[in-house]
Amino acid sequence: MKEEVQDWFKELQHNICQQLEEADSKGKFIHDVWDRPGGGGGDTRLLSNGKIIEKGGVNFSAVWGKTPEHVLRSLQLPADEPSEFFATGVSIVMHPVSPMVPIIHMNIRYFEMSNDTWWFGGGIDLTPHYVQADDAKYFHQRLKAVCDEHHPTYYGEFKRWADDYFFLKHRNETRGIGGIFFDYLKGEPPFSRKSRFDFVKAVGNLFAPIYTHLMTKNHQLPYGEKEKQWQNLRRGRYVEFNLVWDRGTKFGLDTEGRTESILMSLPPLAVWAYNYQPEPSSEEERTLNLLRKGIDWVNS
Amino acid sequence: MKEEVQDWFKELQHNICQQLEEADSKGKFIHDVWDRPGGGGGDTRLLSNGKIIEKGGVNFSAVWGKTPEHVLRSLQLPADEPSEFFATGVSIVMHPVSPMVPIIHMNIRYFEMSNDTWWFGGGIDLTPHYVQADDAKYFHQRLKAVCDEHHPTYYGEFKRWADDYFFLKHRNETRGIGGIFFDYLKGEPPFSRKSRFDFVKAVGNLFAPIYTHLMTKNHQLPYGEKEKQWQNLRRGRYVEFNLVWDRGTKFGLDTEGRTESILMSLPPLAVWAYNYQPEPSSEEERTLNLLRKGIDWVNS
């Protein structure tokens, strides 16, 4: 199973990069292949200064070895028991040039331990600088359709989880319009490893069509200095989420993960202004008011 | 004692703002007075777009009330015991326009609990975009002189503490050239509350002369686009330290502190580039090689 998941993830990385390059029409991914001292490694792909994508990364990794103590502790397993782990995943973040194109994030991952424990996790979420109702509806409809094909409770459960996860407590704001987030998808009946993997594959396959659609649709919309400044402030919030609240980022930085691959999620540039308040009734204020948990985007 | 410390801190804030405005010659601090729902409040002062200072904050706060459970836990006290706390402090971060002027941070604070526990904490550290040997020596000599006046072990101990504290583990870099950091300065003999407070006052009084000296000395040094880009990348590191490692920031954001006052420490603008490496033998590489613990700046 390990090899099957890993091979499929690697192939997905390849396909996504190809489709993003095609949609961008200018930017090309550089490849950075790296080894992990304790076992395994990764392939970090980065596109900079494209026509539509300003900075974006598509990371693949497959790492294994002795299970670190902190992982055993977090799983409430005895820290002194000899144990091997295997983890593989694909992680994507795209920061577009235009404030009219949303930031997007996707991650899918698979974890296995020598005691036969295994699970899948992942998610996709969208962070528009300006929330556009038709895009938000399109995005959630596509996610819901894929979830519904695999289990009737998936969308509702994973959408709520995304609302709770992609949340900046210190700002009382969601990061964007959410999406889906899931973790610890194991093999309890009626689920099998195959049915969980099928779902994760479907989520992975959803990324390129969704984002290339939003790129193509929005990158020619007009904008000016005001929209660019707002984008930079929203990128500041993206930095705050990733460095303060994102568990994956914190875990990676705290446990000697590959820093450059982890922090490829940060924007090329971000701005902070003290106590910035958008103008009343502006587009910026309208977007800020939509960064709330619990909005039913599918029926909005 | 509470009132005495609080009044002295407030006065210090006033004096520092005045001296910074004078040295900057253009920027003026705005005042933002706020209340804390549970008791107390603060006075956040922010200077933007000065001649020398691009964005800088000088915060005063004095807060009190029921001791939060997490504070009791962190002090290993029973979480269900009724207890009142009082905390007051001054926090400063300055981000200059010119990459030839260093970023500086200072904090002094006093904490008291209803069970008669009290302590002082604080520190000053300097983050040059380009390390200049004479400035680094000047900075540490001034700190050492003040420490030595108060106790022979202070400088060595607090300098080491700063090296350990202002450290980006995920980059294996110190934030800058360090300085001094201290916490839990209590009344164990030979120390009294008065002798600890005298030391903290001396640290507070050191800030304005040190930083106005560095502002005046360096702001007219020439620089170009390359130095500006490097400054933006180093500001990215400053963001990483404050959001990932700084205990005060994390504590504040996690416990419903006033977000805008806490995050005034962030730069006006920051840049991230994937796997950026300075040119061999460049000034940027030379600085990077000096971001190490344990350098004896006084005798360098």
Specify the biggest β-sheet of chain A: 7 strands, antiparallel
Please report the number of helical segments of chain A: 9
What's the count of strands of chain A? 10
Tell me the quaternary state: homodimer
Features:
42% helix, homodimer, two-stranded antiparallel sheet, alpha+beta, 7-stranded antiparallel beta sheet, oxygen-dependent coproporphyrinogen oxidase, 300 residues
What does this structure look like?
The structure is a homodimer of 300-residue chains. The first copy, chain A, is built from nine helices and ten strands. In chain A, the strands form two sheets. In chain A, strands 1-2-3-4-5-6-9 form a seven-stranded antiparallel sheet. The N and C termini of chain A lie far apart (40 Å). The mean pLDDT of chain A is 95. Chain A is α+β, with helices and mostly antiparallel strands. In chain A, a hairpin with a 6-residue loop joins β4 and β5. Helices cover 42% and strands 26% of the residues of chain A. Chain A is globular, with a radius of gyration of 19 Å. Chain A has a single domain (2-289), classed as oxygen-dependent coproporphyrinogen oxidase. The first copy, chain A, has helices at residues 2-24, 69-74, 133-150, 154-165, 193-218, 225-245, 247-254, 259-262, 283-289; strands spanning 29-35, 40-48, 53-66, 84-96, 103-113, 118-127, 167-168, 173-174, 179-185, 269-271. The longest helix of chain A has 26 residues, at 193-218.
